[in-house]
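2024-03-11 09:14:02 INFO worker-7 job=invfold-0412 stage=load source=structure_tokens
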């Protein structure tokens, strides 16, 4: 699981394998659900030599709660990209946020 900034900008993550942890380079622009292949890091092949590949599926976590600054930055990004968003939170959403519900 990686954050939206990591998916957009790229990152390196440690992935558990049968032999311990491996570093996986996640390139910029990675989409949720994208699958990466770690060659030779999977299960041993039956009645043959060698090992299979390990597949790693990326999950992108979208934050449920944002600080005011995070919200401002995301709104600014949406404006730069020309993406329509609802800018103002409703009264009920502000109350919900105030009581951490």
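2024-03-11 09:14:09 INFO worker-7 stage=emit residues=101
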């Amino acid at each position: 699981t990686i954050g939206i900034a990591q998916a957009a900008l790229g990152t390196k993550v440690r992935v558990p394998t049968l032999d311990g942890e491996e570093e996986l380079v996640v390139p910029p622009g990675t989409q949720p659900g994208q699958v990466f292949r770690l060659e030779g890091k999977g299960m041993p092949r039956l009645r043959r030599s060698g090992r299979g590949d390990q597949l790693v599926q990326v999950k992108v976590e979208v934050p449920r709660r944002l600080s005011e600054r995070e919200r401002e930055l995301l709104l600014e990004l949406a404006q730069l990209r020309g993406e329509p968003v609802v800018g103002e939170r409703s009264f009920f959403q502000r109350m919900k946020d105030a009581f951490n519900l």
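2024-03-11 09:14:09 INFO worker-7 stage=report msg="The two ends are 24 Å apart (CA to CA)."
2024-03-11 09:14:10 INFO worker-7 job finished
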